[in-house]
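So, can you check?
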Amino acid sequence: LSLEKAGVYEDPTVLDDVTIYSNASIFGGDTIIGSQTTIGANTYITKSVPNNTIVYLNEQGMTTQKKDYTK
C-alpha cells in the first residue's frame, strides 16, 4: 500500500504567489504555506504559515510577521 493511497502525504503544500529564498527548508505533509507569503533564506519551517506572511531569520532566531500593505 503506497503512502498516497493510504491518504498520507509527505510533501508540504505551497499555495499561489509564494517566494522561497535559498536554503529554506519546509517539512511536513500537513504543512501549508499560505498565498502571498515570503520565506526567507536559511529558515526551517515545520508548521503551517498563514497567508500574507514574511518568515525570516534575525539575531533572536526565526521571526514571523504579517505583511503590511498600508504603507
